[in-house]
Amino acid sequence: MTHVVFIHLDLGIGGAESLVLNLAKATLPNESQPFPAPSIANDASPVPSGTVSIYTTHCSANHCYDEVKPPNGPLYPFVHIRGNWIPRKLWLGGTALCSSLRILYLTYCAMKEKPNANVFVLDILPTGVPYLVEMNNVKAGVLFYCHFPDKLLTRDTVNGEADGGVGNEAGGSALSFITRIKRMYRYCLDMTEEWTMSFSDLIVVNSKFTMGEVQKVFPSLFLPLKTEGTGRQAERVKVLYPAIESSLSKASSKNSENSNSNIGAACAESITLGPIVSLNRFERKKNVSLLLHAYGLLLERAELGDLQIEPPPLIIAGGYDPLNIENVEHLAELRVLADQILKRYDLPPSVVISSSKSDSAESPCPVLNKATISFYPSVSNEKRHKLLSCASVWCYTPHREHFGIVPLEAMDAGVPVVAIRSGGPTETIVDGCTGYLVDYVPIESDVHGNFTVKGFADAIASILLDPEKSRVMGQRGRERVLQLFSMETFRKQWWKLLDEARMRGEQRHFRQVVSYPRLAYSVLRCLFEFILVFLFAVLITWIMKTMGWIEDDRGILGTVKFHYLKWFGRDEL
């Protein structure tokens, strides 16, 4: 049976973590039953099955998905936590460097503890790939899943986009000495990222948009590869769209059979329409302030009589870690902006509903509060399903998002989606069919005149005012998800990639073992490295003699021996 080892940096709450868990479930015999069972193993299924191990440096019981939450998470027995003692950053920064060290240590532990693995799957950072392929020449295939190039995520940009172009820092001011040092540091890490990724047997990305970005910054990865035994050339980078659990559609259809523009029976007493919902991590790059401004424009239109209905409540939910400084700061910033908008129309201030308080509510719908804007940090799977069963419109505000799993969940629940026309959502949402895509213009001083704010407000109003259109959009969204993004489709595509990675790993292992030119190359490289070390030692000795730190008739080792005898009063070693 195929054994797949996943190496992931931190099993928190986010799109990357959700994808890794789905990959693990797709590897196991049955995605609905993660534990291998004899009856399943003996079943002649067209899709193969395997076993998994998940290596990570951190998995908090209070900030993780239910699948890996101890002690009853179905994937929890497969999780191995190693290297939690390695710091996340140094005193002056160095987060990327520490992350690379953590990945290296995870890779070392995974290879030593699971030497018979068939495929190693790494994501986030490819630092551990050369350790598996070049230093140890593992027979297993090495697959790297690139969510987005780290080179484009560590700039002062929005997913790689800046005023100076993709991948460049937004400049204008004179560079200080510290800035130059940081640029040199980042340049080294960026070069390392491309170099280490090139050792992968197979590279997988989450969307065509991400593939285009990878090709821009790492063009060497798209050079054709020769396939062993054939004259054909193989592609190194391939696309695998993330998927969602099909049970989400069943759960949502039970609660909203009539139409997704109407709220459930428990909510009907309170409000007419389901809420407008946004689900993102509380990070500035998620651009949630855009939705707040659009909601303010809807309130203004309702007050002026230009909108025939009263806007339903707005719920802003998402992943929230109290230890993450940006999460804490951005939630406070959003609350200030929300209160300013609500005060303008004499509405009560926004409220923050804790996960424990909201999950204990008896009602199946989480919008029975009187506040017009509510914040739901750290939503559980149960709360997420409740939101999907009640929402009338789902808004997705990130610009240049790599893929975006949230729009798929909304479409699967039959909820129309309004999103930015950029990145992954352009591949999942069909404009005018399953939702609306709005062109992006950065928000500056004139908020009400901003094209994107007006476009979001118009799209939301169009869905709210036409229940039949909303119903048709929701139905088409469900059909699109089942056709392209279901777990069954995902599982079949994933196993094809696993088989290809395993085959390439075996071919690479055989070439490196029996290749005499490679053996000669290794010998020459060792000789060259020895010469470099020798020359470096000679240079250091000459510098120390010039500075007067050691005597002319002694070398470095002789000086160390002399001072040892002198300090400890020994006549000889």
From TrEMBL:
Mannosylates Man(2)GlcNAc(2)-dolichol diphosphate and Man(1)GlcNAc(2)-dolichol diphosphate to form Man(3)GlcNAc(2)-dolichol diphosphate. Its main location: endoplasmic reticulum. Keywords: Glycosyltransferase, Membrane, Transferase, Transmembrane, Transmembrane helix. The chain crosses the membrane at residues 519-544. It catalyses: an alpha-D-Man-(1->3)-beta-D-Man-(1->4)-beta-D-GlcNAc-(1->4)-alpha-D-GlcNAc-diphospho-di-trans,poly-cis-dolichol + GDP-alpha-D-mannose = an alpha-D-Man-(1->3)-[alpha-D-Man-(1->6)]-beta-D-Man-(1->4)-beta-D-GlcNAc-(1->4)-alpha-D-GlcNAc-diphospho-di-trans,poly-cis-dolichol + GDP + H(+); a beta-D-Man-(1->4)-beta-D-GlcNAc-(1->4)-alpha-D-GlcNAc-diphospho-di-trans,poly-cis-dolichol + GDP-alpha-D-mannose = an alpha-D-Man-(1->3)-beta-D-Man-(1->4)-beta-D-GlcNAc-(1->4)-alpha-D-GlcNAc-diphospho-di-trans,poly-cis-dolichol + GDP + H(+). Pathway: Protein modification; protein glycosylation. It is a single-pass membrane protein. GO terms for cellular component: endoplasmic reticulum membrane. This is Alpha-1,3/1,6-mannosyltransferase ALG2. Belongs to the glycosyltransferase group 1 family. It is an enzyme of class 2 (transferase). Its EC number is 2.4.1.132, 2.4.1.257. GO terms for molecular function: GDP-Man:Man(1)GlcNAc(2)-PP-Dol alpha-1,3-mannosyltransferase activity; GDP-Man:Man(2)GlcNAc(2)-PP-Dol alpha-1,6-mannosyltransferase activity. Residues 369-480 form the Glycosyl transferase family domain. The keyword Transmembrane helix applies. It is found in: Endoplasmic reticulum membrane. It comes from Cyclotella cryptica.
